[in-house]
Amino acid sequence: MEVPAGGLSPGMSPEEVARRELLEEVGGRAAELRLVGQFYTSNGISNEVAYVYLATGVELGETHREATELMETRLVAVEEALRMAREGEITDGPSALALLWCEPLLLQ
Fold first, then answer.
1. Cα torsion for 63, 66, 68, 73, to the nearest 10°?
2. What pLDDT does 62 receive?
3. Is 70 in contact with 8 (CB distance < 8 Å)?
């Protein structure tokens, strides 16, 4: 299980990419995106940076996935997603980190 993610495209800001990936992968449109943090995905090997955004006020609609993106959308409660990240059920490191970084904002 993982959260929506994607690579930066030339000429697009990290926020624009976050909005694009949310729409493509889960059909989501966010009322607000908040930058939570950034990290290097492979310290010592690469200078690739991942940006973590929290999308709020999300309305779900039709997805716009690429033909190679074979995935299913699974909605879970915030508490369940956080538990899954803490207990290692989410094995995608960047997704688990993103969820845990967003925890204080999600539980307000």
1. -20
2. 86
3. no
Both tokens assigned to 102 = 């967003």
pLDDT given at position 73? 83
Q: What DSSP element (H or E) covers 74?
A: none
Residue 106: other Cβ atoms inside 10 A:
15
Cβ atoms of residues 55 and 32 within 8 Å: yes
The pLDDT value recorded for residue 67 is 74
Closest listed residue to residue 30, CA positions, set 67, 5, 66, 55: 55
Its pTM stands at 0.90
8-state DSSP, 87: T
| DSSP structural state of residue 41 | S
